[in-house]
Amino acid sequence: MTLREIADRLGCQILAGARRGDRRVTGGFCGDLLSNVLAAARPGDLWLTIQHHVNVVGVAQVAGLAGILLVEGVEPAESVIAKAEELDVAVLRSSQSAFELAGRLHRTLFAELR
Amino acid sequence: MQKPTDVGSNAAFLAVHLIDAGDVEFGGAASAKIKGDLRRLGIVEALARRAGIIAFEGEMNLILYSSHGGRITVCVDRGAIEITVEDDGPGIEDIDLALTPGYSTAPDWATDLGFGAGMGLNNMQKNADGFEIHSHIGSGTRIVCWIARGEHDAA
Amino acid sequence: MEFQEVARLVEGEVLVPPPDGGLPIDRAYAADLLSDVLALTEESTTLITGQISPQVMRVAEILSVIAVIFVRGKHPPGPLVESAARLGIPVVVTKKTMFETCGLMYQNGVRPCRNRPMLVRTPPSSPST
Fold it and tell me: What is the fold of C3-112?
């Protein structure tokens, strides 16, 4: 599925990187500890996190993630959006919790394939 | 709501917890005890939880940011639960900045432990009915929170 | 779901078992950052986390969390497990990721906590001197 399809399906806003909407999402990763994300997230994962400071953009790019999905309605600063556009990183946002979004994303990506 | 006055004169309960700076291993232990003590006094779960959260955020701030540690004072009277978190250094340079959600001066090691999301003071405000913060560079910080008790409390 | 069902579902190792009568798991919350967990407003939640610092159990106690699932194969240290046992909070460790753990539990009917708005109470107008 593409980022755009996922954003539609989950009802997320796209805050940055809209032109990356055709990027394929192959999995999901939940986590707020940056060192852990770098160690364990896989390329193509959509990263669900509440962390919304500028470092998350660099992490997403370095790890080759499909994008960042900010949870619990957190609002990143303008500088974070700007950085994301600059590094070509997609940033989505939802008011729902990580648990719920992970549940719905998991179902969308895997359960519906059956 | 107004800050309770004369809290000391008809206090049902008073406790002071001393917190050491840098004592991350034990961080949160005093707050868990504070919550437990309040429940044993008969304070309802919802209020005791809020007090525990306030104490926890205060306790972690003392551990992570104070020069020499500090103390948490819990005072309960018929009208309110009052929690004071204070230390004698280093003080907060810009209080408004410190109160901005997400603003944090936590070192990386603290962030990796799950602290330093910059929500501590805001969590205290969110759980308190009244909140005051006083701080001066070089002389320390004092935060006072209070929670109004309702008619349904036992104690 | 029942606690033991959840443990089986995530192929987890039970470090602190539930009480004899079992433990229903209805709602869950996933987070690594303790400040985030502290913003939880509901009781009787199961916490899913990769954070194994000693504070996790103290926070669980303050928030009346009913069970904790450690993900990513993060084995909590002995003292943490002892606190959990003392507090009567069942603990499971799973090698699965947080994403997969949430996904499986959600598919099996465990619901999220009610979203809490980012409420910041306006402090009373006492000036900070």
Answer: 3.40.1390
